[in-house]
Amino acid sequence: MGQSMTAPPVLSLRDVRKSFGPVEVLHGVDLDLRAGEVLALIGENGAGKSTTMKILGGYQPASAGRILLDGQEVTFGSQHDGETAGIVMIHQEFNLAEQLTVEQNIFLGRELHRGWLLDKTRMRQLSREYLDRVNCDVDPDELVSRLSNSDKQMVEIAKALSRDARVLIMDEPTAVLTGEETRVLFDQVRALKAAGTAILFTSHKLGEVSEIADRVAILRDGALVRDVAAYEITEDGMATAMVGRDVSDLFPAKPDTAPGEILLRVEGLRVPGEAEDIGFDLHRGEILGIAGLIGSGRTEAMEGLCGLRAASATRIEIGGAEVNIRKPSDARDHGLCYLTEDRKLRGLLLGMGMRVNLTLQALDRFGGVLVDRSAEERALDDAIREFDIRAGGRDMKVGNLSGGNQQKLLLAKVMQTEPSILIVDEPTRGIDIGTKQQIYAYLRRLAAEGLGIVMISSEMQEVIGLSDRVLVMRAGRVAGMLSGDEINEDAIVRRAMGVGAKHSEKVA
Amino acid sequence: MTTETTSQAPRRKLPSMSILGPVIALVVLVAIGASMNSNFLGAANITNVLARSAFIGIIAVGMTFVITAGGLDLSVGSMAAFIAGLMILVMNAALPTLGIGIPIILLGMVVAILAGIAAGLLNGFLITVVGIEAFIVTLGTMGIYRSLVTWLADGGTLSLDFGLRTFYRPVYFDGILGISWPIIVFALIVIFGEVLMSRARFGRHCAATGANEAVAHYSNVNVNRTRLLTYAMLGLLVGVATIMYVPRLGSASASTGLLWELEAIAAVIIGGTVLKGGFGRVWGTVIGVLILSLIDNILNLTDLVSPYLNGAIQGVIIILAVILQREAKAKG
Questions:
Q1: By 3-state DSSP, what share of chain A in percent is helix, strand and coil, each rounded to 5?
Q2: Within a 13 Å sphere around the CA of A453, how many CA atoms are in the beta-carbon half?
Q3: What is the ipTM of this complex?
Q4: A395-412: pLDDT as tens digits
Q5: Chain segment B294-316, per-residue pLDDT in tens
Q6: What structural domains and CATH numbers belong to chain A?
Q7: Closest residue of chain B to A26, computed from CA coordinates
Q8: Are B255 and A364 in contact, with CB atoms under 8 Å apart?
Q9: Which one, of A343, A349, A357, A353, lies nearest residue A413 by Cα?
Q10: Which of A137, A82, A127, A84 is nearest to A106 (CA)?
Q11: Residue A340 with chain B: CB contacts under 8 Å
Q12: Closest Cα to residue A422, out of A366, A340, A357, A317?
């Protein structure tokens, strides 16, 4: 292991193990966090990253092994002990009180007082300063529930700044951020690093890892497989170490054949307040990418198309015939199906088992008035095999599956409706590269079988690597349609940001 | 985690505490009752307990669906009183034209059922379409129905015509093969409800709606219609319960059906249905109803504890039931 750094570690794990019941999920992990160093912890979903971070932050006790703080062995009874020791953790699911204001959240539990009363002026002023440091212009008096995800992330970071963290642990901080916001975040990370904070973060975006990390630790199946200086490893090397096999062919080859007939024609689609005058054609056998910034109305437009929210359109044709889609069941009757971007809140019933989740969307296919359980069980067998879903047991609650397996189950679930047009929204958000590869291959196979696929994605690589054509949206409108060689990062970004496109404008 | 998918666990696991708890409690109560009073297990007492359970039980079956779908209905007790009052008024008014006979009883039944469905639809409409909290809506309609029946009775009691009452009595007191009508109707409704909840699409949709409305919506479940139907069904069942109840006393007043809503909700919760929705079981509700009735019955038959403490004991049981559920959930 290449631990050649000179600074002594602030926080270390020594042969840490963790078991849930009889299953050991961490098999003796050693890890060092040093002052002024950014450590990236990467691995596939279920490799043990979250567990490792929770042990570091005091959220979960280790089953065996030692935790060293400044070389001294410590035991964290709770996250409060962790915070007292200067360890601040930012969760992927935010830890903010939604009904409190930004300022109240930043000072939650450590409110400033003047005499018996709260010193609101001072807290507001300090909040403003912390928010300014992360270039976040939200009002400290705004309720957190009204903020966008990226603003919430910035508030979390402002909160961490306010606590003078010695160790900052971030679980996928950039998952919900745009490119610009990520840049702001990284500036802050660099500033914190210069000030001597030890930083650990996880990410599935390997480009970011190369950019910001000083050291990279790679977990696979609960064991640390690499721990090296960032300059010693390439992105390909990271991916290979994470998955344990070569994943350089992340995207399946695009077909050379001409697209089939038009499956779906949308004209003048309007979702009040979100999207205006959206129009496009989708061909049989094609993957149409939809790119654009978060908030550009992509999700809303597609949800409107599928009857999931109020929308109107000049004309919508499916298979050449005009259709009228007012509610989700209309969409389904026409073979149109939408896979949500939010698998935890809109996609799956986390407290229920896989069988119930799998068949919920197409329950009428399983028996008449009464549900045929054995048919459901057979469907689950098929889905587990086809989608390679790995679960501890069939009766396991879906909430306990790893993100990648949840996503596969969600995909299996929407496929139960046997769609001819599939709209997938962020189909690989927050899942590991091995699962991504499987999902890309699956989508391409569906297209080859004659489906039309629309893929909304914020990951540029994904849009470029998988799409046959790309529709770019900006501020609720279509900002351009790219195909073939026009599909490149520059052309997409120019349209998404609305900056004057030069050469590519003429081609379009 | 890379544990391979395993098929069903080979060893037979003991049912969890959330299933065993209510069953054990019921068995213990029966044992206590039997040891304290020799008449407890007699046919007369058992029939009495079951017949009295039937009203709350029929309503509680409907309540199970409402709660499973993430709702609540506080108005059922008042609704029952209002329907009873309405039914008596209509039947008395129709007496000169129809006379005493089957048609007037059928008229009363139709009125009760239609009024129940209408009242349930009103609750459901305000909750799903207008979008007001179920607690607020049904707290409001609870007051409205209670007040209406008091007004209809002019502060006193609405009584069914004496001759009619004599003719109608068998609906409560008679039956087939010694089993009285309320028990038969209750049993049929329970069987129907259990199948609907655990085997039918509607039950699955109720659980999905209660567990996560957004997921249900994105899964093509018509969330509003599902909720509306649960309230309408509950209203219908309140109507059915009232049809069974009116011949028992032949009257309705401001105190008819008082606190039935709480007993029904308590029975549902004791039976293992989750108050915030997402999971419900009708057979559990039946056990919950029987537990509550048996406590009442045992206190009346024995002089161990004052019957006035009935409410206190029921309260303890409700809280215990929820604690047991939570522990089962933490383990599972």
A1: 35, 25, 35
A2: 33
A3: 0.82
A4: 888 888 888 889 999 999
A5: 888 888 887 777 878 877 888 88
A6: 9-243 (3.40.50.300), 251-335+419-508 (3.40.50.300), 345-417 (no CATH)
A7: B1
A8: no
A9: A357
A10: A127
A11: 218
A12: A340
